[in-house]
Design goal:
Elements (H helix, E strand, L loop, with lengths): L7 E5 L2 H4 L27 E4 L5 E4 L10 E2 L15 H15 L3 E5 L2 H4 L10 H16 L3 E7 L5 H7 L6 H16 L6 E5 L8 H4 L5 H28 L4 E7 L5 E2 L4 H24 L6 H8 L7 H9 L4 E5 L5 E2 L7 E2 L6 E2 L5 E2 L5 E2 L1 H15 L3 E5 L17 H20 L3 E4 L22 E3 L11 E3 L1 H11 L7
Helix pairs in contact: 2-4, 6-8, 8-11, 12-13
The chain binds 6-O-phosphono-beta-D-galactopyranose.
6-O-phosphono-beta-D-galactopyranose binds next to loops.
Length: about 500
């Protein structure tokens, strides 16, 4: 048994990490436009102007002074402003995806291209036209778009004036945005995802030291608004086009294993998983908060404001599929931690049985098979792995080649793991490796942390020709797709 014959092989990107054109085509400022570049050791900053007009920068939202407003500051380098210039080069890039044989391409729409401030009555026609052109270009090659509606990208105006998703009004504004795109792209798009890694907000308290209690409480309210917005979008999508397939998207690898077989570690892991993964996925797949939600709210002193209408909306907007990002796994323990590891939104004790990438993310293909079984066993709806990959330093040789055997090795092992999960009986429909073309890293803002099958000539400081080059993995993945996952050599 191998991959089903209509398996969706492809790749994934997000608007802010690849488009550039930050102030073109009538686009408004997004919250991600005020994020600087960082590195493994230096955080990315959010830049702002304080009440006296002095520029400043903060490592996270809650460190920004109350009277300041986020702003683009002169002299600061913002890697998303140009990114890899997909905005102007999408035709060239899509031709390369087609050459690899992509069946699907995951991308996101920047809300600020459609509603520059997020609150306008009418959408921005130039923004609508841009995505129409991209979808048509994909269709030309028979590539199915898989569109994330919000991928870490909110109109800055809404952040500044409403407090972003903390404010219930965001649900209505998201409604307006989704209704426009569902109508506009009917017949061009079939697959949609509501929020990228919606569960990530609940992990912030574990990622940042001194994360304020007040912010934790707000985060639960914020994600509740997103759950409702997501559910309403699902319902609306089906009303507009019954052929639409609309899924949720979660960060799928965190807190996977107990570090030891001490039952206390097992319970700690179970609680973490409930909090980090199932709290969110249960709401979106099953249409109601899980039985353990009350315990979590009590733990953090959360008093959720939830209306009767919210409850009904959640019930009526369950997703058609569950999709997730999978890069690595992490461990949980109640014992003293000797060595910690990094990860995609998941720090934790180092797993002695795994090796780690240059950015400290574990390499764990078995964890992919394990999570596929866990999620399918719990929900019994179709799954897609919509992010996976190895962030690594690549070398562009003088003759224009890039020998990324480490990336091929990573994918070979992960594709084998998916094959095993399919043999286990999991209903897995597609695979879109992250950053199929090199793009700006979300966590560090670097170009150096590359994921692509296609190399983009640009460095961390923004220098480079932006020319595209095929890596060794490009040819390898092309063969994998052509043989539907049979030839992995
Ligand atoms: C996920 C995000 C992506 C992406 C990826 C890789 O959390 O959904 O946007 O960037 O992680 O992470 P990074 O870019 O930090 O290496």
């Amino acid at each position: 048994m191998g991959f089903p014959k209509d398996f969706l092989w492809g790749g994934a990107t997000a608007a802010n990490q690849c488009e550039g054109g930050w102030n073109e085509g009538g686009k408004g400022l997004a919250d991600s436009d005020v994020k600087t570049a960082g590195s493994l050791t230096e955080p990315r900053y959010i830049t702002y102007m304080d009440a006296q007009g002095n520029p400043g920068k903060a490592v996270s939202e809650h460190a920004i002074p109350a009277d300041a407003h986020k702003a683009v500051i002169d002299g600061c380098y913002y890697p998303y402003h140009e990114a890899i210039d997909f905005y102007h080069r999408y035709k060239e890039d899509i031709a390369l995806f087609a050459e690899m044989g992509f069946k699907v391409f995951r991308m996101s729409i920047a809300w600020t291209r459609i509603f520059p401030k997020g609150m306008e009555e009418e959408p921005n026609q130039e923004g609508l036209a841009f995505y129409r052109n991209v979808f048509q270009e994909l269709r030309k090659y028979g590539i199915e778009p898989l569109v994330t509606i919000q991928h870490y990208d909110v109109p800055l105006y809404l952040e500044e004036n409403l407090g972003g998703w903390k404010n219930r009004r965001m649900i209505e504004l998201f409604d307006r945005y989704t209704e426009v795109i569902f109508r506009e792209y009917k017949g061009l798009v079939k697959y949609w995802l509501t929020f990228n890694e919606i569960n990530s907000v609940l992990m912030m308290k574990h990622l940042f030291a001194n994360y304020p209690d007040k912010t934790i409480k707000e985060d639960f309210q914020l994600i509740h608004h997103q759950f409702v917005a997501s559910a309403r979008a699902v319902k609306r999508a089906h009303e507009i086009d019954p052929n639409y397939v609309i899924g949720c998207m979660i960060a799928g690898g965190p807190s996977t294993y107990p570090l030891t077989c001490d039952p206390k570690d097992v319970i700690a892991t179970q609680e973490r998983l409930q909090e980090n993964i199932y709290y969110s996925a249960d709401v979106m797949v099953r249409g109601e908060y899980p039985y353990f939600a009350e315990r979590i709210w009590q733990k953090y002193g959360v008093e959720l404001s939830m209306t009767e209408q919210d409850i009904e909306d959640l019930r009526n907007g369950t997703v058609d599929m569950l999709t997730y990002s999978y890069y690595c796994t992490s461990c949980c323990t109640t014992h003293e931690v000797r060595e910690t590891a990094g990860g995609n939104l998941n720090m934790g004790p180092k797993n002695p049985y795994l090796t780690y990438s240059e950015w400290g993310w574990s390499l764990d293909p078995d964890g992919l098979r394990y999570t596929l079984n866990e999620y399918y066993g719990r929900y019994h709806i179709p799954l897609m792995v919509v992010e996976n990959g190895l962030g690594a330093v690549d070398t562009l040789e003088e003759d224009g080649t890039i020998h990324d055997s480490y990336r091929i090795e990573y994918f070979r092992a992960h594709i084998k793991a998916m094959k095993q999960a399919l043999a286990d009986g999991v209903d897995l429909r597609g695979f879109t490796p992250w950053g199929c073309i090199d793009l700006v890293s979300a966590s560090t803002g670097e170009m150096k942390k590359r994921y692509g099958f296609i190399y983009v000539d640009k460095d961390n400081e923004g220098n480079g020709s932006l020319d595209r080059y095929r890596k060794d993995s490009f040819y390898w993945y092309k063969k994998v797709i052509a043989t539907n996952g049979e030839d992995l050599d």
